[in-house]
Amino acid sequence: MSDAQVSPLFPAGSGDIRLISTDGTIFYVHRLILRLASPFFETMFEIGSEGTPQSNHLPLRVEADAKTLTCLLHYLYPTPCRPRITDLGQLTATLRTAKRYEMEGVIEQLRSVLTERYLEEDELIVPLYIRYPLPVLLIADAFGFISEKRLALRECLEGDLTEHLKTVISSDIPARIMIGLLELRKERLEWFRSKLNAWSPPLVEPCCSQKFLEHRQKIETKVYHCLEFQPFVDELTKGLRCDNQKVTTSSFIKGHLIAVPFDAIVQRWEREWVVLRKSIPKVPPIMA
Ligand SMILES: [Zn+2]
């Protein structure tokens, strides 16, 4: 015990009980704080409290490293300024420890870290669930945070899925999560398909329909990956020409011009899209 480090934030003299982290740092904390925050510690102290003062005992081992335990204690103590958690790995480790020791109050506070936006210098920092939707979805799933799960899920329905996957630190994503996610992304893709189905340009020559089909295929592939409205519209409304060489009508225009959807149609789709992307999806049964 002689080589044990003492946490500078919870030094000797600041509490009536010693905790030790898995990596050997000692924390002096208040038994009362632990008791109030955790039925686990309450029970433990009730059973072992009578008689000798704790200082004669070995420090109480907590299943967390010093960094995680420091973070946990920051949330446990009613201190005015606690360091902001920006690292999802740290957040997960702290949540896990809080759960292990039945610290519901700490869990609730840590939970809010996922959705809070804050000002840093002059910049408004976007919530974690928007910055890292898939990792947040996995955390919310693991700890049963339903509303955070739905919010993160909404963000996972946009953007390239492989890019989302890259943000996940641990490689194991539960199959039911992936299946649910793919289901919802497929629904989203169907929406785009329905717009494509609704639009068919008036085609003058048979050669143009082949050209248009190829173009449509290209749009579908693009949308399949990004599931975003703007690239979809950009692709659909950019002038398309069928460059069949057997053009006879106006010899000075090479190929046939294929019509694009009217602005009014695109605007109607966009209004629909805004409603769709704003709506917060229900968690599919398989993902629950
Ligand atoms: Zn043509």
From TrEMBL:
Gene3D superfamilies per UniProt: Potassium Channel Kv1.1, Chain A
Ranges where the BTB domain occurs: 15-77
Residue ranges crossing the lipid bilayer per the database entry: none
InterPro entries: BTB/POZ_dom (IPR000210), SKP1/BTB/POZ_sf (IPR011333)
SMART domains tied to this protein: BTB
Classification via CDD domains: BTB_POZ_ZBTB_KLHL-like
Protein name: BTB domain-containing protein
Organism: Serendipita indica (strain DSM 11827)
